[in-house]
Design goal:
Belongs to the YjdM family. The protein is mostly beta strands and about 110 residues long. It is about 5% helix and about 30% strand.
Length: about 110
């Protein structure tokens, strides 16, 4: 059984190891041993507020501008504190509950870490 990864350029399975590099005999491509593991592992997403501070789950943030709500006609006023945020990987980065409005999603560019 061949435990070596296929060539990332031509996808050949005839790869061999030479010291600290893998070599593909078909296309001549060389790459470092362990490079495929680093490329396969996605980097952790870093969420930042409007001032550039790093946000984490459970943080408290403050809204920096009035935000109109779609569908209800309400407005979240500037300075509203939102506690215990949850970061998600979608269009709106923050899931939270806002007092008086309920559960909603916010963009990190409209909040500041408190």
């Amino acid at each position: 059984m061949n435990a070596l990864p296929p060539c990332p350029q031509c996808h050949s399975e005839f790869v061999y190891e030479d010291g600290a590099v893998y070599i593909c005999p078909e296309c001549g491509h060389e790459w470092a041993v362990g490079a495929e593991a680093a490329a396969a592992e996605p980097a952790a997403m870093v969420y930042r507020d409007s001032a550039g501070n790093i946000l984490q789950d459970g943080d408290t943030v403050t809204v920096i501008k009035d935000l109109k709500l779609k569908g209800s006609g309400g407005v979240i006023k500037m300075g509203t504190k939102v506690k215990n945020i949850r970061l998600v990987d979608s269009d709106h980065d923050i899931d939270c509950k806002v007092d008086g409005f309920g559960a909603m999603s916010l963009k990190s560019e409209f909040v500041k870490k408190a």
